[in-house]
Amino acid sequence: MYTEGFQQWFKMNKNFGSPLMGWNKACAGMYQSISEQQLELLSGNLTLLSDQLKRFSQIKTPEDYFNLSRDVIQEDMNTLINNLQILLQATLLQLEEFINLTNTYTEKATKAAKSMGNKSSEKDKEKSNQ
Question: What is this structure's pTM?
Fold first, then answer.
């Protein structure tokens, strides 16, 4: 009696486990690509900052300082807008993949639950017929 329930529980978890493992691997891949992209953006920002500091160190007159400050602010704003566009595009892409994975996992889990429900209802019918 107890072994039947355990066997049924084991089969149900086996059916739910494999899609969940695939879903976890896909999510880990998404997080890895986001992290790599953010590191690339950070590297570009640090390179830009280094270049700007080098240019600030070569200033000779107050006019040069104000002109360079204006240019640096413009560069920073352009970089910020570009980075935001890249991050938003990546986020939308990852969100779309996440939704597809969730739908796939939900379908597989529903099928597994229905198959387990059908098996248990068949066993209940057999027991009631005896």
Answer: 0.64
- For 89-129, how does the pLDDT look when each residue is reduced to its tens digit (9 = 90+)? 988 988 888 888 888 777 777 777 777 666 555 555 555 55
Rounded alpha-carbon distances, angstroms, from residue 55 to 29, 58, 60, 71, 106: 39, 5, 11, 11, 56
Write the burial class of residue 77 (CB in 10 Å: 0-12 exposed, 13-18 middle, 19+ buried): exposed
Q: What is the mean pLDDT of the chain?
A: 82
Instruction: Please give, one letter per residue, the 3-state secondary structure of the chain.
Output: CHHHHHHHHHHHHHHHHHHHHHHHHHHHHHHHHHHHHHHHHHHHHHHHHHHHHHHHHCCCCHHHHHHHHHHHHHHHHHHHHHHHHHHHHHHHHHHHHHHHHHHHHHHHHHHHHHHHHHHHHHHHHHHHHC
